[in-house]
Amino acid sequence: MRPSGRAPDQMRSIAIETNFTIHAEGSVLVSFGNTKVLVTASVEEKVPPFLRGKGQGWVTAEYGMLPRATHTRGSREAAKGKQSGRTQEIQRLIGRSLRAVVDMAKLGERQIVIDCDVIQADGGTRTASISGAWVALRLAVDKLIAAGSLTEDPIEDSVAAISCGIYQGTPVLDLDYDEDSVAEADGNFVLTGKGRIVEVQASAEGATYDEEGLLRLLRLARIGCTDIFAAQAKAAGR
Amino acid sequence: MRPSGRAPDQMRSIAIETNFTIHAEGSVLVSFGNTKVLVTASVEEKVPPFLRGKGQGWVTAEYGMLPRATHTRGSREAAKGKQSGRTQEIQRLIGRSLRAVVDMAKLGERQIVIDCDVIQADGGTRTASISGAWVALRLAVDKLIAAGSLTEDPIEDSVAAISCGIYQGTPVLDLDYDEDSVAEADGNFVLTGKGRIVEVQASAEGATYDEEGLLRLLRLARIGCTDIFAAQAKAAGR
Amino acid sequence: MRPSGRAPDQMRSIAIETNFTIHAEGSVLVSFGNTKVLVTASVEEKVPPFLRGKGQGWVTAEYGMLPRATHTRGSREAAKGKQSGRTQEIQRLIGRSLRAVVDMAKLGERQIVIDCDVIQADGGTRTASISGAWVALRLAVDKLIAAGSLTEDPIEDSVAAISCGIYQGTPVLDLDYDEDSVAEADGNFVLTGKGRIVEVQASAEGATYDEEGLLRLLRLARIGCTDIFAAQAKAAGR
Amino acid sequence: MRPSGRAPDQMRSIAIETNFTIHAEGSVLVSFGNTKVLVTASVEEKVPPFLRGKGQGWVTAEYGMLPRATHTRGSREAAKGKQSGRTQEIQRLIGRSLRAVVDMAKLGERQIVIDCDVIQADGGTRTASISGAWVALRLAVDKLIAAGSLTEDPIEDSVAAISCGIYQGTPVLDLDYDEDSVAEADGNFVLTGKGRIVEVQASAEGATYDEEGLLRLLRLARIGCTDIFAAQAKAAGR
Amino acid sequence: MRPSGRAPDQMRSIAIETNFTIHAEGSVLVSFGNTKVLVTASVEEKVPPFLRGKGQGWVTAEYGMLPRATHTRGSREAAKGKQSGRTQEIQRLIGRSLRAVVDMAKLGERQIVIDCDVIQADGGTRTASISGAWVALRLAVDKLIAAGSLTEDPIEDSVAAISCGIYQGTPVLDLDYDEDSVAEADGNFVLTGKGRIVEVQASAEGATYDEEGLLRLLRLARIGCTDIFAAQAKAAGR
Amino acid sequence: MRPSGRAPDQMRSIAIETNFTIHAEGSVLVSFGNTKVLVTASVEEKVPPFLRGKGQGWVTAEYGMLPRATHTRGSREAAKGKQSGRTQEIQRLIGRSLRAVVDMAKLGERQIVIDCDVIQADGGTRTASISGAWVALRLAVDKLIAAGSLTEDPIEDSVAAISCGIYQGTPVLDLDYDEDSVAEADGNFVLTGKGRIVEVQASAEGATYDEEGLLRLLRLARIGCTDIFAAQAKAAGR
């Protein structure tokens, strides 16, 4: 029995509220149950130094957690003067996941910066971030297309992410904090709308797992992502 | 004529939504027009080193702005590895303003940390932060009282803040970004519910001002704070 | 009775020793009683990136306190690896105060950097810094004029600063450390030679104050600045 | 055809030279072809703050790359003043992988710190690090057992890691730099001697992959780890 | 011919003004010609962690240069966020030089922190710092003795330092900036009042030197230090 | 009697293994007894900003010590976020020593970066670094000559370094850790193949020394460097 009473293959309710803020070219508040992340996509008409003059664009991401997004207050990374290893790991994953479905040549020599800021955390902040980020990116690109800045759509597929893990011996979908903190294994799966895999990160925590376990987690992830793709499409008006 | 069409002594609409997040002992989303700040109050059963064993409490504050809270994306302070002088100046002001109305002996040997994170900026983020912070603090203290952790209420008065400035030669109340960026003078006033002054910070920007100007700004501030005190009382259920 | 025996509206003795060091275009050792600050003005034939090519100049300031300027040794900011919030707040105030009386277009595309280093502290280091900085700036600009680099004087007015506060219920002028550390309210006032206000920063410390209190502090500040303007004029040979 | 002429399921030659340095309780120079990593295990009779007094131990890891371990010189992280996100990601993976096979209660209240420093890089530095680290850890624990500091062996299984990826459409084992830099997908697999999975991290790079692709990589990883387990056993004298 | 017209073995005029500031237990303004350093000695009734409970004291030093102590303004180390290698090298030398003549057991479990801040630089700032620091230390220890905190004098000898170098082929004493910037070799010599050597640091700059050259520099240093010892004795009232 | 049983003027065995790594233009593993340093020379076709366009080259050095190169593990500088004063002092000495024998005009507008990373420490890491660095530099320059990038050899002499000190009253050559940690005086001497002095750094540690002592250390250094020059010549194939 899961703490939340959910079935093993049951997602939390997903909500993607678009245009949550007014300045960003794309912005959403994405919720996976009590996990809430504000995601913005900012278009910048420049690229990082290593890409200058190459006629292609870039998509990158930054991630942060508000100090009291969590049960007990964590220290503010800006005050500590550095981002934790966990933060960097997550923001690298978000950027990589989005780049996997964007044709950088079609994007042209501009950069889209995704900011994922966790307002409230209850497990799965990185997967909610990726799932929301795709919508924010979609909205920002739609504006570029509408403005005539882009003639071809550089987004080739949708991308969503979900966590799955082994909780008390059972593979379960979309772990919340109560499950995540005691799970025997914990995986994050990034999938595309066409059913391809972008990234699998599955770690044993206190126990190891086997190939069958990995496949069961992956299959749960496919179930969850189906729901997310539907929510994304609706939010993006597609 | 103000860009927003407001009268010189007209505030933007104020909203203070309580319990915006679930983990913090006190939390509000405070809006002054398009400026939106998420404020949380976190109770910690410890005090900073310089107060240990002195039988009194502490209230402190941290401030941050999400990278795309603004018209163009600013860099993330956590990524840059330090808080700007502006950020530090603001968070010091917030902490000082709240401490002016709290009896630290009555609070007991515990600390309340206020986090003000700007979700969307349109001028006046520091005054919205202070005004919302008082409500978050009030809610957190109410929980301590309800739980029997406090026998006496350590909050002696309410506190609110508003910006006033001289825009195109006219003193105006509650500057938004369009006004703030070109104002000849810009002041932040922190007042208490009983009509006392906690802090005045009034800077010339490109032009100097005189005593009469200062007093006119202060009188506008009193008008604005009356509205804020009402919104605070309603939000705090007082 | 003030600890120093001074009358409530009595300044400490002011001294402004010019050309205290040999390399800087302008340099003074400014003393407000036992508070001593070495101020230098350095002319640089370049401007910060945000002003390049705009045909105007810039004045900025940095502030520091020698570790043993104070009663007990403080840690060295260079060794700690960062400037405190207090330091940044002060240096921003110094820069803003000077810029209020300089016509940046007349200064031309060059920068004047003011360095205020506190040799000995006894309260009022920021106001002594501003007051001395104007003289250092004046000397540096005079050299530019003498050298023919400037054809018009970009300095439009003089600027001075003084602290006033409420000590044991009485408004007093030019607080020294003994007063400052226990004052109920503490304000810094930056005024121009023509009687205009550049900046007011008045904070309650443990007690709040009212409009009448603010005005009494401002009037004391005018008295004090009169003395400072005289000392500045004499030092600057005007 | 692979650049090195290897068959798709062919590892590079593996060497694990023990006692490469004299001071560490365990030390090895591990080579996967031209990738060479110096790994040391240091026993410290203390634990991190969060574990104090809990009667259990800890295993953690740090990773670094010498500036000229690579084709062109990279900047020195100590000189830049921070570890990159990549470095932090890798050292977190190494620590997690080792902890998966250690019984912390049996280790007692002591910490073993693993240092992995890449002397020469040609792809696969993180997997060589994990594989070598297990031997260094084994040697250090053997010393603790020989000295009577441990009565039970806290190491429950061996652990090894290998990269696999899709190179020009073909799944291949143990990517070297020439392959790694252009692979369509790149995975790191951490397996135990008993055949269990500790961690899978498989990322698409420019192309996505499918479940069959993931399984083929995992199967290649099993082949490679068989070789590594043999080399580990021989090096550790088991 | 030296730029200053001095004879090869001629020092600049030395001045050591005691009690330059009021708070420090010992303070001097030391001048070697146009080089001026403010040195304070601060007594702290604690020792660094590595000495706690060992019944002995410590003497350490920090060094800084005001941004406009030099011909052109240098950046402020506190603002840059780190001390340069040069700064660290110098402050380590100052501390080592003083510790060579102090009996740490006699000092008791307390620390004396020397701060050397260069007000104006014209070559030889580190040697002026060491020479002045001994006087500041002497004054601070005299106060401890006078107060009865010390029963035995922990200072066993005086210590002074001077630079010598090879300028246009000729060994010269006490290099000023004009010489220092083009000298073929540059040495700093730290000697004791009893004629012993504490430290020799002699570097070729563009040319190498030989044993005879080293000895000639050392002999010049003895000449210079004789003057400094006399100035120190007079300043310290000995 | 020395702890190692060596005669006072006896070096430890020296080994210089060339081409220890494959990527660097020059690389050696240099051993002075148990002290082992990996040194690489990297050629970069650019110069630091202060030399751009001046038609001359630069040689610089960085130094690091692996955390467990020492008896007990030291913290990793990259993780702490800064290089220690000792590290900076050493890397500045290495760079200066090499530059003393290189004609920068002949090197052309390129930079050679020397990295010295201590694999295992037993005293004398900086002198082993300098001695090995010359060989790495020699190998890198030989490649530039062989490739036709240089027409004249910019290396004018060889350079080697050795430590000497006073151990239990006796001057001894090439201190190992057991001697170094208790020596009364400790000097590092950098000499050229033609018998010239590049740098002398001789510090008293707990005792002072005299001119005769300095000369005896210098003479021992000459003996030691003779051995090192022979090892360098052999390693460099000269």
TrEMBL record, chains A, B, C, D, E, F:
Its EC number is 2.7.7.56. PROSITE patterns: RIBONUCLEASE_PH. Phosphate binds at R86, G124, T125, R126. Residues 10-140, 158-222 form the Exoribonuclease phosphorolytic domain. Phosphorolytic 3'-5' exoribonuclease that plays an important role in tRNA 3'-end maturation. Removes nucleotide residues following the 3'-CCA terminus of tRNAs; can also add nucleotides to the ends of RNA molecules by using nucleoside diphosphates as substrates, but this may not be physiologically important. Probably plays a role in initiation of 16S rRNA degradation (leading to ribosome degradation) during starvation. InterPro entries: ExoRNase_PH_dom1, ExoRNase_PH_dom2, ExoRNase_PH_dom2_sf, PNPase/RNase_PH_dom_sf, Ribosomal_Su5_D2-typ_SF, RNase_PH, RNase_PH_bac-type, RNase_PH_CS. SUPFAM superfamilies: Ribonuclease PH domain 2-like, Ribosomal protein S5 domain 2-like. Belongs to the RNase PH family. It catalyses: tRNA(n+1) + phosphate = tRNA(n) + a ribonucleoside 5'-diphosphate. Keywords: Nucleotidyltransferase, RNA-binding, rRNA processing, Transferase, tRNA processing, tRNA-binding. It comes from Sphingopyxis soli. Homohexameric ring arranged as a trimer of dimers. This is Ribonuclease PH.
